[in-house]
Amino acid sequence: MSISRIRTLAAATSLAIALGMAPAQAANVFRFAFQGDIKSLDPYSLKESFTIGMHAAVYDALITRDKDLNLAPGLAESWETPEPTRWRFHLRKNVKFHDGSPFTADDVLFSADRVRASGSSFTTNIPSDAKFVKVDDHTVDMVLSKPNPIALYQFSTWYIMSKAWAEKNGAVAPSPVSASAPSYATLHENGTGPFVITEHQPGVRTVFKKFPGYWGKVESNLDEAVFTTISNDATRVAALIGGEVDWIDPVPLQDQQRVNASGTATVMTGPELRTIFLGMDQVRDELKDSSVKGKNPFKDVRVREAMYLAIDEDTIAKRVMRGQATPSALMIAPSLYARSAEFKRPATDAKKAKALLAEAGYPDGFTVPMDCPNDRYVNDEAICQAVVSMLARVGVKVNLNAQPKAKYFAKVLAPNYDTSFYLLGWTPSSQDSHNILYEMVGCRTDPKSSRGGWNLGGYCNTKLDAIADQVEGETDPAKRDQEIMDGFEILQKDWAVIPLHQQALAWGVSKKVTLTQRPDNLLLLYWVSKQP
Amino acid sequence: MLAFILRRLLQSVVVLAVVGLIAFSMFRFAGDPVNQIVGVDTPVSERTEIRKSLGLDDSTAVQAARYAANVLRGDFGISYQFRQPVSHLLAERMPATLELALCATVFALVVGILMGVYCALHRETVLAKLFLAVSLAGVSLPTFLIGILLIFLFSVTLGWLPSFGRGDTVRLGWWTTGFLTVSGLRALILPAITLGLFQMTLIMRLVRAEMLEVLRADYIRFARARGLTTRAIHFGHALKNTLVPVITIAGLQLGSVIAFSIITETVFQWPGMGLLFVQAVQNVDIPIMAAYLLLVAAIFVAINLAVDVLYTIVDPRLRLAGRTA
Amino acid sequence: MSLASATPPSRWAKFLDSDVFASFRRSKLAMAALAVTVLFFALAIAAPWISPQNPYDPAQLDLINSNLPPIWSPDGQSPFLVGTDDQGRDVLSAVFYGLRLSLVVGLLGVLVSGTLGAALGLIAGYFGGFVDTLIMRVADVQLTFPAILIALVVDGVAKAAAGGGLDTNATIGLIVVSIGLSFWVQYARTVRSSVLVEKNKDYVQAGRLIGLSSPVIMVRHVLPNVLGPVFVIATINLALAIITEATLSFLGTGLPETMPSLGTLIRTGNRFLFSGEWWIVAFPGLALAGLVLAINLLGDWLRDALNPKLQ
């Protein structure tokens, strides 16, 4: 070995000691892995639970939600309603953004404009008719045109951005949809939250560090949190059990026993707010890619009932979901609607389904294609396969087209609505039934309105729309619940959609870690602590 | 000789141009990219505007020329999934793939040569037959199955080695390396073996075959007759003569190791270009797919060119005749 | 003198009474490999009659029977000899049908690539000149990429173009084409070099003299003489094609879970390997490994037998 080679080697070794080892030992680092990526650092880019949770670590909202999902003060210290259509927010003083600049009313006004600008996917987070008025540097008014009982319900995921920073970095518009240049805000953050992002490699790794200038007291004892994407189920579980990461989401159903038996980690389960359901195209006059020509069988209520009755949700919950799902009669989770218990799922009845199909003129059934995501919900593709085999037994031949979510959503969502039969999951971001009645099952006849925007099957009943409008303005809680009930009854009578279940959350958590899990499935770093 | 190198250079350029054309035609074939870029609720007017800003309304020839010009400037467009320049994404992940490929190749060379020599010298022993059988299994089992089995054995059951990722990396300028930390080196072992196994098998069989052939050659018989020790004959003459083609093949295979890493990287969640490519295929992220194809082609062409040039220097006959293959 | 007698005996005929065949009878390994291959082919052909269940008919699957272990464990149930998967699909039936798919895809893939490669090789070798240069340059470019990469790209782009609405037969067709386009080069190169040797031989010249057209000479007289090496390549490529299909399916761009090939079964079962439901991945894995290993052994022996230097 030559001298120079020895020298190089020695240099490399000392470099390794200097660079590689030092940071890992001192800090209390929480390592966590999710099956997907942090989609964008721009808090108005994409409404996706995991990404929203990550934004909450670096950005603050005016009003946040506590561990029981109740509204709690955030950047607004307090608020009141001096008139039924006016909300007054008193902003916290001495709050600093991560770049050191102070937080003021101007930032709130700027964020209110930005979140409703084109390109934002959070436009519905604040009421569309809301006007924001600056009273002084630390007081802001929101003025609406009519009373609104749920005006603040989605404030907790409307994060406040810095006006000066956005202007300086050309990020005034929410992450532009044009592909010519990626927005500064998609790759950088400047919030007021308890953590700062020091490194962000999309699809690989993101590093959070504690923000020393944070205005509040933080429950978490972490110095640093390192996020990695691990999309492969088996690899993710192995990483948790092997102690390479402290938290994973989701733990595949079949691996939960093994995680619990590992001794190093446990599975934290809880009910999730998301409802998994099936929808049928009721708009087209001829069903796409079906054996039925010239008409659409799903326009016949008997066929929809037959589809509903043929699918044995109890067995799906027990077998495919291994008991980690709650069969649901409604399109909303029981915890979000007080009178949920009054609804019952009609019992599975394959014989009756066959009879109904024969009555509707399809004694031998028909063929229909089905769209299904295969990387979005817990065991989504397996659920679809089970549905396929259950429908096959009543004569309905389903051609399953299971795809990654990116391709799936591009096909089935607006403006194409290119689907005949689909599986979808939905959490009302307002935590309220109105969102279901309006966005999921409202008529999508008016292209300018956002009503029915997620109603992929295009079911339409004007009576239901009228009820939805009543619900929106109703301030008496008992009356409101009754109106919602009327709406859900129409849905069930029309067999408009086939609700399946609410899936269970399943986080894999190292025994060294304590944290809080809410039914909205957000991982909130400020409640995470780890034994050093 | 200069003329020969120039001709090879020209051919390389043609090859790259053809691959570029294929890469570009992928964009045309895969449907409207606007749908990939915009959000769900983007109105038609905005879509039209984006179409225009991307130049999708121009003629195919104009678009192809623009693509070529952009590629030559190192601009492969913006990824549909990540909304980031593709060149940036690839550069970020290249070190991971190159380090993995290098380790796999070294592993394949060292183990492959050792096993090959043993098999050639001790043809009839049980161990040699076992090596051959193992090597055949190495070719037969799909890479992903081998990877999963290794993870199951060494990560889950025994708990010796990490099952995913690169471990801690150290940043040296724009390059990130896993060679300088313990966790980085440990993370390399299983993926490198998985990726290198196929090449190892190939090299082992090649060494064995070449050795057997060389051992029959006249000059070996002559050396034996001269009374040289068996050891000197085997390693001084036979192996030395075997190594030239072996190393050539290993070099030529480096490109396919890089390309083959797509499977290994998927199994081990290795944050390299291969994983990026697989995700791009699943999500129809054409700019990444096209750029990756071009990159692999460029690596291949560069390696082939280098080998050709080296051959002309080493082998005087070629200086006169030039190579055609 | 007739042309036929001018033609040397075909390589196939030579093969049968040559030392190649003798060496086959000497090699126990080759005979075992052949036996295994034949067994797998038989199972694949007989699948519809010997399987307790048609795994591709969703009406025959019942979730009640999902995730049953093999029959020899306490929870095993008849008739599910080696257990069921998460949809209540009988693993053994799925393996039989999967073998069928693997072999169909593999054979068709080899057929497509072999035909394409042999045709292009014949043309290149026989005509030479510009055509030859063109074809061989394309082959060079193609060799730049490993087969799996090409198959992935062809598959991905075609699916994107089709908008995801492909039915199963179209998917199989697409995979066959992907494989065909990925593996033709080796055939083309081999056939071309053989043609270059053959075309200067007397019998070809004789054929020209008596006015036979080029296609007739090529197909009837040159082709049979280059079939030997093509056959060896085909055997080895059959194994490669099967692996390629399995890999595509494993990466999620191959056959769908409703019509699983061995690769799809392994991808599905892989999810359950860690949770103790090992039989879903183990049996398809064994079948795939066994099949490919047997074919490879055959091909390997065939190559050695045809290359007397190594004997």
UniProtKB/TrEMBL annotation, chain A:
Gene3D superfamilies: Dipeptide-binding Protein, Domain 1 (3.90.76.10), Dipeptide-binding Protein, Domain 3 (3.10.105.10), Periplasmic binding protein-like II (3.40.190.10). Keywords: Signal, Transport. InterPro entries: Peptide/Ni-bd (IPR030678), SBP_5 (IPR039424), SBP_5_dom (IPR000914). CDD domains: PBP2_NikA_DppA_OppA_like_2. Residues 1-26 form the signal peptide. Pfam families: SBP_bac_5. The keyword Disulfide bond does not apply. It comes from the Bacteria. It is found in: Periplasm. Its main location: periplasm. Residues 71-445 form the Solute-binding protein family domain. Belongs to the bacterial solute-binding protein 5 family. This is Periplasmic dipeptide transport protein. It comes from Methylobacterium cerastii. The lineage of its organism: Bacteria, Pseudomonadati, Pseudomonadota, Alphaproteobacteria, Hyphomicrobiales.
Automatic annotation (TrEMBL), chain B:
It is a multi-pass membrane protein. Its main location: membrane. InterPro entries: BPD_transp_1_N, MetI-like, MetI-like_sf. The chain crosses the membrane at residues 12-30, 96-118, 130-154, 174-198, 243-268, 288-314. It is found in: Cell membrane. Keywords: Cell membrane, Membrane, Transmembrane, Transmembrane helix, Transport. Residues 94-311 form the ABC transmembrane type-1 domain. Belongs to the binding-protein-dependent transport system permease family. PANTHER family: ABC TRANSPORTER PERMEASE PROTEIN, DIPEPTIDE TRANSPORT SYSTEM PERMEASE PROTEIN DPPB-RELATED. This is Dipeptide transport system permease protein DppB.
TrEMBL record, chain C:
It is found in: Cell membrane. The chain crosses the membrane at residues 29-50, 103-131, 168-185, 229-251, 272-298. Gene3D superfamilies: MetI-like. Residues 99-299 form the ABC transmembrane type-1 domain. The keyword Membrane applies. InterPro entries: BP-dependent_transpt_permease, MetI-like, MetI-like_sf, OppC_N. It is a multi-pass membrane protein. Keywords: Cell membrane, Membrane, Transmembrane, Transmembrane helix, Transport. Belongs to the binding-protein-dependent transport system permease family. This is Dipeptide transport system permease protein DppC. The lineage of its organism: Bacteria, Pseudomonadati, Pseudomonadota, Alphaproteobacteria, Hyphomicrobiales.
